[in-house]
From TrEMBL, chain A:
Cell compartment(s), UniProt: Cell inner membrane
Species the sequence originates in: Methyloversatilis universalis (strain ATCC BAA-1314 / DSM 25237 / JCM 13912 / CCUG 52030 / FAM5)
GO cellular component terms, semicolon-separated: plasma membrane
Keyword Transmembrane tagged: yes
Protein name as it appears in the record: YeeE/YedE family transporter component
From TrEMBL, chain B:
Membrane-spanning parts: 41-60, 80-100, 112-133
Pfam short name (any one): DUF6691
InterPro entries: DUF6691
Organism: Methyloversatilis universalis (strain ATCC BAA-1314 / DSM 25237 / JCM 13912 / CCUG 52030 / FAM5)
Entry protein name: Transporter component domain-containing protein
Keywords: Membrane, Transmembrane, Transmembrane helix
Length: 144, 138
């Protein structure tokens, strides 16, 4: 294994992670809800109900974050790695998978592990393993 | 009040994703590429997030009301079953293929990224398919 030291951003990633943790803390203690993005989005596909306003508000904040960021700093680097066909396949897998698996990187990986939930640990190990294997196959077996 | 706090939380979450590098698919791919030139940065995102969120959730387990006055609800499911594992495996495969998980995809959509737009539409279709397939049991 080679470490890509030139790409390594420990402080930005640690600070960004701390902000994500702060958001999850604020949402559970302040609004009484778990910051699981796939659950919040998926919940919007069900009709109405009392959960709608906070879910919408959270997503407005999330999608609006780049606007607020843009007031203070240049946009961060963002380099896509997939073409349209792959994006469609990947989006479908993520959509179906996070709903059957009842969570994603935020709901299981951050909030679930912070609750010390064995179920979320299994989910996190599963999606991490699948991510590692998929990138290995795409980059080293197919991509060569 | 619950929605107002959620708005702030969403904003902080999005800024955290932007700062961390999670919203850059090339960086995500660099993290998931153990056999190539490995960028370990994103392990620190999860570490930093849990370091802050763990005390909050420890406190939350002892409370039944949130600051907004509404009920504080934590997940109750604890079954480790096939949908959990298979769903998470499918999610991880999609994450590896595109370098997007749900949060960063939505933030990238907010940056005006066309690839993120394609991904989010497909993700919504996938979530809709799940809702449809499980409608009679819901």
């Amino acid at each position: 294994m080679n470490i890509a030291w030139d790409a390594f951003t420990p402080w930005a990633s640690l600070a960004g992670g701390a902000l994500i943790g702060l958001s999850a803390a604020l949402l559970i203690l302040g609004s009484g809800r778990v910051a699981g993005i796939s659950g919040i989005v998926g919940g919007l596909l069900k009709p109405g109900g009392p959960e709608l306003p906070w879910r919408l508000a959270f997503l407005v904040g999330l999608i609006g974050a780049p606007l607020v960021w843009g007031l203070f700093a240049a946009p961060p680097e963002a380099q896509p790695v997939a073409g349209t066909g792959t994006l469609v396949l990947a989006g479908l897998l993520v959509g179906v998978g996070t709903r059957y698996g009842a969570g994603c990187t935020s709901g299981h990986g951050v909030c679930g592990l912070s609750r010390l939930s064995p179920r979320s640990l299994v989910a996190t190990l599963s999606f991490m393993a699948a991510g590692f294997v998929t990138v290995y196959v795409v980059r080293h077996l197919i991509g060569g | 009040m619950q929605a107002l706090i959620a708005l702030v939380a969403g904003l902080v979450f999005g800024v955290g994703l932007l700062l961390s590098g999670m919203a850059n698919p090339a960086k995500v791919a660099g993290f998931l590429d153990l056999a190539g030139s490995w960028d370990p940065s994103l392990a620190l995102v999860m570490g930093g997030a849990i370091a802050v969120a763990l005390p909050a959730f420890t406190l939350a387990k002892k409370r039944s009301r949130a600051w907004a006055g509404c009920a504080l609800t934590l997940p109750t499911a604890n079954r480790i079953d096939a949908p959990l594992v298979l769903g998470s495996l499918a999610f991880g495969a999609g994450w590896g293929l595109a370098g997007y998980c749900p949060g960063p995809a939505l933030v990238s959509l907010g940056m005006g990224s066309a690839p993120a737009g394609v991904f989010v539409l497909a993700m919504l279709a996938g979530m809709g398919a799940h809702a449809w397939l499980t409608r009679s049991r819901a």
